[in-house]
Amino acid sequence: MPDKKILVLNKQQIQQKIDRMAYQVLEDNLDEDDIIIAGILPRGNFVAERLKLILDGIAPFKSKLITLDLDKNSSSLKAKINVDIEECTNKVIILVDDVLSSGKTLAYGLGVFLDVPLKKMRTLVLIDRNHKIFPIATDFTGIALSTVLKEHVDVVLNEPGEEDAVYLR
């Protein structure tokens, strides 16, 4: 029997959520000259790319996109970043992922920047499942979704042949 998928957000609704979060990021950083948007690979980076595109059209500040490649299955922080970490010194960092479930991925993402003096760090997720086991809170959330642990959230972004959507199965 195939998994039953429930549509949570369609393409238009995803875009509306990202648009709204972009305006929230703008309001939070009006006095800044530039910010860094750090997308967690793979789908967090897709959200980050869309966020940057919107901010480039509405914000007076410059935004730079960087990517974080985290080993989410490791028991210790193992991460690769596509820039020299010193470029983040005294900057505003917006850490972006698609789904916040346990909080481990965002905790690892925050860990990348622990030894760098920052102006401020904010977190942004498209979906917050509210199943945190780490003390992680999001600053900007597309939608908070109450689910049971056995359910899975599928975020489909930039998939060939598929329309962007969020499903619960």
TrEMBL record:
Which residues belong to any copy of the Phosphoribosyltransferase domain?
9-141
Q: Which domain of life is it from?
A: Bacteria
Has keyword Glycosyltransferase?
Answer: yes
Q: Which CDD domains match?
A: PRTases_typeI
Q: What GO MF annotations does this protein's record show?
A: glycosyltransferase activity
Q: Which keywords does this chain's UniProt record carry?
A: Glycosyltransferase, Transferase
Q: Which residues form a coiled coil?
A: none
The UniProt entry, under Pfam families, shows:
Pribosyltran (PF00156)
Keyword Cell cycle listed? The answer is no
**PANTHER family in UniProt:** BIFUNCTIONAL PROTEIN PYRR
In Swiss-Prot or TrEMBL terms, this protein is called Pyrimidine operon attenuation protein/uracil phosphoribosyltransferase
Q: Which organism is it from?
A: Mucilaginibacter gracilis
